[in-house]
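Backbone geometry:
***
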Amino acid sequence: MSEAVVDDIVALLPPLLQSIETLGFVARYLHPPDFGEVMRMAGTPDADLRAELPKLASWPDSFAHLRGPLQSAGNHVVAAFDGLRAAESGEGDLVTVFRALRHLPRSMEALYPLAATLPPISDLFLDEAARADDDVRARLAQPKHPDSGVFHHDNEPGSRGGGFSFYVPETYTPDRAWPLVVALHGGSGHGRLFLWSWLRDARSHGAIVVAPTATGPTWALMGEDADTPNLDRIVAFLRSRWSIDPERLLLTGLSDGGTFCYVSGLGSASPFTHLAPIAASFHPMIASIADAERLRGLPIQIVHGLHDWMFPVELARQAQQALVAAGADVTYREIDDLSHTYPREINAPLLGWLARGDR
């Protein structure tokens, strides 16, 4: 490899990866009244990135396989910070912030193909404990299974119609049954973007994760339900090709996706063994009309933020009471510093819960 290219990569990766982590911090701690303080704490990790990105244009075409992903990821990071700062300066609103943060998963999607060749990028897709785990590193150093990686099925960005994106760990082997996580995006989200909320933890702890996209503008919370049959088809497709444990099927989701966990996951024909609605709305009628046998002993984890401004925390507390009264095995997690955002730190505990097969 060209010495100049190596020097450019060494200079580029730290600000790129730090900027991605900082965008994750902003996304996690986003709370409208505190947005200015969060941005102050975020600082300007993208400044050095902006200085290094133009150097990639001079690379020989023989390094296009590295240049393309790095440029794409860097451009998404820069666009994210531009949007956030526009909102901070009064040139945008909360919608501007959400649109800016959509560049975060796009940057991660661009970088993922380089995880196999650049160790710092591989670390981006591992949690902190796994980065220090020699066994995890040794497994990832082995040739990856040909049926592993990130896949997209009719799920281009911005599309609707029930497509899906999914991840099978590089360490996949068909000689054992793997847990499956079905992760549902929020109302204005998209499965292709939401997949990256889970990939780091699925890769670290060994789980297959699929992120479907709603068939309509959001999940079928009212009227005809086209999403539940679509979820059934997606699960059936994955089970037909990969070795999946039928006793460890988790349905989880954020906001409208979390609410749809209740609507779909409490149905008598649902294949899911565990439910984890996050920042979800809830009405006691959901428990009262659910199949009593289905609810009895069903493992459910409810995750909600104390400062949720869209669905007040009282809704989650009511959900816990109603579902416990109906016989479900409910764990309630109320996060003191969480607003209406996705708490990625919950993924590892959810995977641990799923691995135990608590029933």
